[in-house]
């Protein structure tokens, strides 16, 4: 009788185990599908300024860019026409920015109709006086040789980016709260986040000094 009860109990345990295995497999399968779906979504998020380019980390050099003594790397996506801005003149620009050292997160969209939470709406174009120290060193240097109508892409190492990792001290500052939060997260993070930034700068026009 004892042997019979033991066999019956063992049979019940085995049936429960067999019923439990598909449930566990289904849960694991669902989790794996969710993770793969999320990874695919992140992997294939379209970042126009980064498309087709294997950008690396701080201090890396790229053969299709010109590198200056400061560490700034740049290339002209479109060459403008006319004279380049001089010290004391005010430049009117449009720009976009990406945290290329940290997953290529966009924090400012150029051309006001980009859409999404980083859209600047009807924002005015950004202006600054060349040589006045109103913008990060990389932006100041990027103006050298630019002409109205031109678009220049720059890779900015932290040394010539935002001083003390504070986006409020010098321009340009993202025009949306979402953009400010994304940039601020990277700049202020004390971990291993690479703070290399990428900007596309379009020189709209030059306002002569008064």
From TrEMBL:
MF terms (GO), sorted A to Z: peptidyl-prolyl cis-trans isomerase activity
Superkingdom in the source lineage: Eukaryota
For this protein, the record's Pfam families field holds: FKBP_C (PF00254)
Keyword presence, Electron transport: no
Keywords (alphabetical) are: Isomerase, Rotamase
What catalytic reaction does the record list?
Answer: [protein]-peptidylproline (omega=180) = [protein]-peptidylproline (omega=0)
Could you tell me which Gene3D superfamilies the record lists for this protein?
3.10.50.40
Locate the PPIase FKBP-type domain: which residues? 88-207
Q: Could you say which EC number(s) this protein's record lists?
A: 5.2.1.8
Quick one: a GO cellular component term? thylakoid
Name of the protein described by the UniProt record: peptidylprolyl isomerase
Recorded source organism is Aegilops tauschii subsp. strangulata (Goatgrass)
């Amino acid at each position: 009788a004892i042997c019979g009860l033991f066999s019956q109990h063992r049979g019940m345990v085995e049936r429960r185990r067999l019923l439990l295995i598909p449930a566990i497999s289904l849960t694991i399968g669902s989790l794996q599908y969710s993770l793969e779906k999320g990874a695919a979504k992140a992997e294939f998020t379209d970042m126009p300024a980064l498309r087709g380019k294997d950008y690396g980390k701080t201090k890396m050099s790229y053969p299709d860019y010109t590198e200056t003594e400061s560490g700034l790397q740049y290339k002209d996506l479109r060459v403008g026409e006319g004279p380049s801005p001089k010290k004391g003149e005010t430049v009117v620009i449009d720009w976009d920015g990406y945290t290329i050292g940290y997953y290529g997160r966009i924090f400012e969209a150029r051309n006001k109709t980009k859409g999404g939470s980083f859209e600047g709406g009807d924002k005015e174009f950004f202006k600054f006086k060349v040589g006045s120290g109103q913008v990060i060193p990389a932006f100041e240097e990027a103006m050298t040789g630019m002409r109205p109508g031109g678009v220049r892409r720059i890779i900015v190492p932290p040394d010539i980016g935002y001083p003390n990792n504070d986006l409020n001290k010098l321009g340009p500052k993202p025009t949306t709260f979402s953009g400010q939060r994304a940039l601020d997260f990277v700049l202020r993070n004390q971990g291993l986040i690479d703070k290399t930034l990428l900007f596309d700068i379009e020189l709209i026009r030059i306002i002569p000094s008064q």
